[in-house]
Design a protein that fits this description.
By secondary structure, this protein is an alpha/beta fold. It is about 25% helix and about 30% strand. The strands form 2 sheets. A 6-stranded mixed beta sheet has the order 4-3-2-5-6-7. Bound molecules: inosinic acid (IMP) and magnesium ion.
Length: about 170
């Protein structure tokens, strides 16, 4: 069985989400952004973040897959559930659980820009720079974590551990 090593507590997360929510509320005054959550990993973060925003928003979800059931990106992104709302002329705020290689984000940014979005910004719970392969700009990051495979608060390993209220490093013992 892999070991769960605590990385971020519930309080750490609550504090950082509040801080980022204040920045977003300030930056998007009078703009009513369309917040697009990337399923499944972002569902808990998005739910907490939205309730802390002091601005009006609309919400949609997209589901993409690039990992299969492993811990490394396959490099090929495919949409498994698309958004239903029109992004043309809208200010888009993509909400991700974690940015790793950045390949998923690059794909989404290109797609929304091509579809005529007025602006596209990125908000992620965790910015993990170790394996970055693109130069995507992350506008809002709650936490920067150097390395390791993380689970909990929406993040999974092979669909497990999403329900954990805090974030853990999943350590595989050989
Ligand atoms: P990227 O395309 O490599 O940036 O991968 C982004 C997606 O991979 C995230 O939205 C997560 O769903 C998944 N992912 C990347 N790193 C981790 C991790 O440490 N734990 C859980 N999921 C991860
Ligand atoms: Mg994800």
């Amino acid at each position: 069985m892999p070991e769960l090593i605590p990385v971020l507590s519930e309080t750490d997360i609550e504090t950082s989400v509040s801080r980022i929510a204040d920045r977003i509320s300030n930056d998007y005054k009078n703009q009513k952004p369309l917040v697009i959550g990337v399923l499944k990993g972002a569902f808990i973060f998005l739910a907490d973040l939205l309730r802390k925003l002091a601005i009006e928003t609309q919400v949609d979800f997209i589901s993409v897959s690039s990992y299969g059931s492993g811990t490394e990106t396959s490099g090929k992104v495919s949409i498994t559930k698309d958004i239903r709302m029109d992004v043309a002329n809208r200010h888009i705020l993509i909400v991700e659980d974690i940015v790793d290689s950045g390949i998923t984000l690059q794909f989404l940014i290109n797609r929304f820009q091509k579809a005529g979005a007025a602006s596209v910004r990125i908000c992620t719970l965790i910015d993990k720079k170790e394996r970055r392969q693109t130069d995507v700009r992350i506008d809002y990051a709650c936490h920067e974590i150097a390395e390791g495979f993380l689970v909990g608060y929406g993040l999974d390993y092979a669909e497990n551990y999403r329900h954990l209220p805090a974030i853990y490093h999943l350590k595989f013992n050989e």
